[in-house]
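--- STAGE predict ---
source: upstream dedup step, 1 unique chain passed
mode: sequence only
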Amino acid sequence: MDIVNIDSVLADFPQNRTSERVAGIDGYDVRLVKTEGDVPWHQHDAQEMHLVLDGALTLVFRDGNEITLRKGDINVIPAGIEHCAHATPGTNVIVFEPSQQ
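--- STAGE serialize ---
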């Protein structure tokens, strides 16, 4: 049973738009993501969860809805929902998504 220190992993990231799998649970990856700027439109075949650690992540949906997640906020996007995102500088997020095996 390993311990992962989130601050240490983030400090080792070389740049923004970096993502690393830090753990796994029941077919899902726990990814630590350092990002900023725009993420293009996309969708997933399974649910995806975001937990914002720092910064702000705005999610925009095709139906026109938009939500902004800030430090401590969690959101689950249902499977098949198309979305894009914008992250402010210094945004760090934990993402739970299906493992890519």
